């Protein structure tokens, strides 16, 4: 019986025009391994028309219309989040190649591409399952994908006035946040917007979510970590009578009085990690822990 060919779906950042060498390296490697290559149409058009790369793909897809063994995200963490939102409940493992800057999710460096792909073909890797969260809006539908791998943020809009967010957890009143907003993050997203607002770093697979206020009016209001099986209900009051909801950065305006419910998604996002890559080493590297900045 002939050995089946591995299938890969490729997503990329069409704004990174100087990364063609890394993209060509991936395409050449997969072709050498006789893998089937399917490319997101937006990225495919960018490679063909802008980068002038001859992409020998087995197919081009749009939206959620792909069925493969692995997904490769070529870009930064933003590109990874977009790819993960398209994967959704498919359960396809995602490999993140870092062509951006910081790269917590996309942690494979361009110099490590062949090593990482070797690990796939030799099955010398591990898969981490990362919690996703979802949002529901009572009275006004959430446009697009309501699921987030990193975070869901409720934010003020239009003017300098803060908003008031009434938060209820598992039916119990928590607090009225008076702030510029509120970030609800997963452990995966704890090193993103949550961290920049003073929230804690949460180790993946810890079974936690974090609520972190954005510029709270009271210094006594601090981030709080809760179990990830909790149900969070939010009601927002605003002088402008509307506010923003950002789901992994995809923002939408909602009207005051819309009740929001946030809970754990019914699926996880599977992320491929090489055996040499460990979470704490990534923290030390990306956040420069222990580095002496003195000249």
Low-confidence stretches: none
Structural class: alpha+beta
Rounded mean pLDDT score: 91
Approximate strand percentage: 35-45%
Distance between the termini: 63 Å
* DSSP strand tally: 17
CATH architecture of the largest domain: Sandwich
The sequence of SSEs as H and E is EHEHEEHEHEEEEEEHEEEEEEH
The biggest sheet, with number of strands, parallel, antiparallel or mixed sense and barrel status, is: 6 strands, antiparallel
**Principal-axis shape:** globular
Task: Give the CATH H-level superfamily of the largest domain.
Answer: Probable inorganic polyphosphate/atp-NAD kinase, domain 2
Report the C-alpha radius of gyration, rounded. 21 Å
What does the oligomeric state look like here? single chain
- Return the domain count: 2
The CATH class assignment of the largest domain is: Mainly Beta
Supply the number of helical segments.
6
Strand order of the largest sheet: 7-6-17-14-9-10
Structure commentary:
Its EC number is 2.7.1.23. Its cofactor is a divalent metal cation. Its main location: cytoplasm. It is an enzyme of class 2 (transferase). The chain is an alpha+beta fold. The protein has two domains: 133 residues, 3-Layer(aba) Sandwich (Rossmann fold); 135 residues, Sandwich (Tumour Suppressor Smad4), CATH 2.60.200.30. It contains six helices and 17 strands. Strands 7-6-17-14-9-10 form a six-stranded antiparallel sheet. The chain is globular and about 60 Å long. The relative contact order is 0.15.
Key terms:
295 residues; alpha+beta; Rossmann fold; Tumour Suppressor Smad4; 2 domains; six-stranded antiparallel beta sheet; 6 helices; 17 strands; NAD; NAD+ kinase activity; transferase
């Amino acid at each position: 019986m002939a050995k089946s060919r591995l299938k890969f779906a490729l997503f990329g950042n069409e704004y990174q025009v100087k990364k063609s060498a890394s993209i060509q390296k991936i395409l050449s490697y997969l072709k050498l391994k006789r893998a089937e290559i399917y490319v997101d149409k937006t990225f495919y058009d960018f490679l063909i028309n802008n980068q002038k790369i001859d992409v020998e793909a087995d197919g081009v897809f749009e939206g959620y219309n792909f069925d493969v063994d692995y997904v490769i995200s070529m870009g930064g963490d933003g590109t990874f989040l977009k790819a993960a939102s398209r994967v959704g409940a498919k359960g396809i493992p995602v490999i993140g190649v870092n062509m951006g800057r910081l790269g917590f999710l996309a942690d494979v460096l361009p110099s490590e591409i062949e090593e990482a792909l070797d690990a796939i073909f030799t099955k010398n890797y591990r898969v981490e399952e990362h919690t996703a969260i979802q949002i529901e809006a009572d009275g006004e539908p959430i446009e697009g994908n309501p699921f987030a791998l990193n975070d869901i943020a409720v934010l003020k809009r239009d003017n300098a006035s803060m908003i008031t967010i009434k938060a209820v957890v598992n039916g119990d009143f928590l607090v009225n946040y008076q702030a510029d907003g509120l970030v609800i993050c997963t452990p995966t997203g704890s090193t993103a917007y949550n961290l920049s607002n003073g929230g804690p770093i949460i180790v993946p697979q810890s079974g936690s979510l974090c609520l972190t206020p954005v510029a709270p009016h009271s210094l006594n209001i601090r981030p709080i970590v809760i179990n990830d099986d909790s149900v969070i209900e939010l009601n927002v009051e605003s002088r402008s009578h509307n506010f923003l909801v950002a789901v992994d950065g995809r923002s939408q305006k909602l009207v005051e009085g819309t009740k929001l419910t946030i809970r754990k998604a019914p699926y996880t996002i599977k992320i491929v990690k090489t055996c040499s890559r460990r979470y704490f080493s990534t923290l030390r590297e990306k956040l420069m822990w222990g580095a002496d900045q003195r000249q």
